C-alpha cells in the first residue's frame, strides 16, 4: 500500500515551493467540520458519564453554570484561535500556530505534546467502547468480552481512517444528529417530570460559582469540550477554510457547551436539586436512564444505550483523524520521516499516519488486556484524563502564541481578536491548567504517595524538552527543514525564513536550488 502513496504538485509549481504533499482539498463544509469537532467532544458520552460523575465526585450542584462558564472561556480562546487560522492554514493546527507565534523549537515541542495527548485519548476511548458494547450485547443475551468489542471498533476506525474524509464526516453527521435528538428528548422528559414536583432553577443560582469547588468542577468539565479544536486540523480539507473553520469552531464550542449545561440542569430537575448528588453517587452512569426510564418506552432506553456506544465510536473516529493529520503535517515538513507526509492517491487520506495510530492503539488495547487491567478505570479513565491535560497544555501555549503572533502583526486583526481575547484566554487557561496539574492525582483517584501524581505532567515536560532538542538539532543539521517548520501548505519559499544564516558552502548550494523570493510574507 505504501507504494501507492504519492506527492501532489503544488499550485504554484515553482522551484521555491517547499511543500508539495497535500490532503484532499475542498471536501468539507461547515456542517461536516462541526460534526468532527462535536463528535470529538462526544456529547452523549459526557452527559451519561461525565456529568453524573462530576455531581458525585465534587458534590456541588453548580454544574450547569460551570459548563456555561467553561464554554465562555473556550469561546474567548476560540476568538484568537480562529483568527490565527485565517492567516495560517495547516493540518498541524496547534503545532503550526505555536511555531509561528513562539518559535520553531516550541512548535516542535507542541507537536510532540499533541501527538501524545491525542494518541492517549483515542486509545483510552477503546476501553470505554469495549465495556459499553459488552454491556449492550449482554443485555440482549450475547456474551462478548470488552477486548473483542474494542477490536471490532478498532477495525472499523482503522479502515475509515484511510478512506475519504468526507465519508467519515457523513458518518459522524448521521450519528451526531441521532445522538443530539435523543439527548434533547431525555432532557425534555426529565424537565417534564421534576423530582421535586415542580421545575427548579436552584442549580442556576450564580452564587454557587463563589464556592471553592468550582475550580475543580471546571477542571473536570473542560474535558467535555476536548475535541472541538480538531476543526482546525481539518482546515486544509475544508471548503473556503478561512470562513468554514471560523464558523465551525465557534459552533462546535457553543453546541457542546449548551448541550452539557442544558442536560446538567435537566438532570438536577429530574432528580431534584436536593437529591441529584446522592442519586449520582448511587446510580453513577445509569443516572440518566433511571430518571427517564419510568416515563418513556423501553425502545427509547435501548436507543440511548446504542447511541452511547456510537457516540464513543464517533469520538474514536474524530481523534484518529486528528492524530493522523498531525503526523502528516510533521512528515510533510520532514520533522518525521518524509513517508508520513504523503497521502493516498485516491482518497487523499494520510495513510502512514493513520496506520501508525492504528498500530499504537492496537498495542495499547492488547497490552491492557494482557495485563488484566480495568478497561474502564485504568484504560479509559487514566488515558483520557492524561490526554485531556495534554490538550489543555496545547490550548494554553496556543493562546500565548496568538498573543505573540499578533504583537508582531498588529494590523492583521482588530484589537478584540488580536489582543483582548487572547490575553484574557491565556490568563483564564493558566488558572485552569495550574489547578489541573495540582489536582490531577485527585481527579484520577490516586493515593497521595503515588508516583503518577506528578509522572503524567512530567511526561509532557519530557516530550516538550525532546521537541526543543530535536528542533535545535534540525536547525543546524538541516536548515532547510528547520525553515519549513509550521509553514505547511502555504508553499512559501524557504529562504524567506532562514534563521540563522547558513554556512557559506551550504548557503550557495541551497540558494541555487531555491531562488530568493521577490516578496516577503510571514
Explain this structure:
- This protein has 522 residues and is mainly α.
- The chain has a single domain, classed as Up-down Bundle (Amino acid/polyamine transporter I).
- Helices cover 69% and strands 0% of the residues.
- It contains 19 helices and no strands.
- The chain has helices spanning 30-41, 43-58, 63-85, 94-102, 104-139, 146-160, 165-192, 214-221, 230-233, 241-271, 276-283, 287-292, 298-332, 351-371, 375-408, 415-444, 452-477, 479-484, 504-513.
- Helix 5 (104-139) crosses helix 6 (146-160).
- It is globular, with a radius of gyration of 23 Å.
- It starts with 29 loop residues before the first helix and ends in a 9-residue tail after the last helix.
- Mean pLDDT is 77; it is low at 1-27 and 490-522.
Mean pLDDT metric: 77
Q: Mind telling me the CATH superfamily name?
A: Amino acid/polyamine transporter I
Question: Which second-level CATH architecture applies?
Answer: Up-down Bundle
Distance between the termini: 37 Å
Using the coordinates above, name the CATH class: Mainly Alpha
Strand content: under 5%
Tell me the radius of gyration: 23 Å
CATH topology: Amino acid/polyamine transporter I
Give the % helix. 55-70%
Q: What sequence of helices (H) and strands (E) makes up the elements?
A: HHHHHHHHHHHHHHHHHHH
Tell me, briefly, the overall form.
globular
Question: Helical region count?
Answer: 19
Poorly predicted segments: 1-27, 490-522
SS-derived structural category: mainly alpha
| Count of strand segments | 0
Main sheet overview: none
Domain module count: 1
